[in-house]
Design a protein that fits this description.
Blueprint: E1 2-7, E2 13-18, E3 27-30, H1 35-45, E4 48-52, E5 55-59, H2 60-67, H3 76-89, E6 99-106
Parallel strand pairs: 1-3, 3-6
Antiparallel strand pairs: 1-2, 4-5, 5-6
Length: 110
Amino acid sequence: MIVEVVTGADERPQARVVDVDDLSKLFLALGEVTDEEAAEVLERSGLGRLTDGGTAVLDLAAVRAAAEPRATAPDWQSRWDELVTHARTQGRLSEDGAGLQVPVQSAAGA
């Protein structure tokens, strides 16, 4: 699954969740936007926040709410739970368990 920040049709950056059935990975992909634009759009959308140029913290509840209604895999919920459990074992969850630290990549490489 990918949370991406890209320039929308009206040339304003927008955040969206794509590849919702691929729960083997979760990362933030940035298109042709500045870090400042990406940070603003992520926070405004409620999907997360940038911590630096290479890392972001995504809000698990918001990402799930955006992805789950569009998921088509019958085992999506159990695979989501596995993704969160795996992140917890790797120490990538925030202290309160609500955020997940993910890498930031160029959308061109997504």
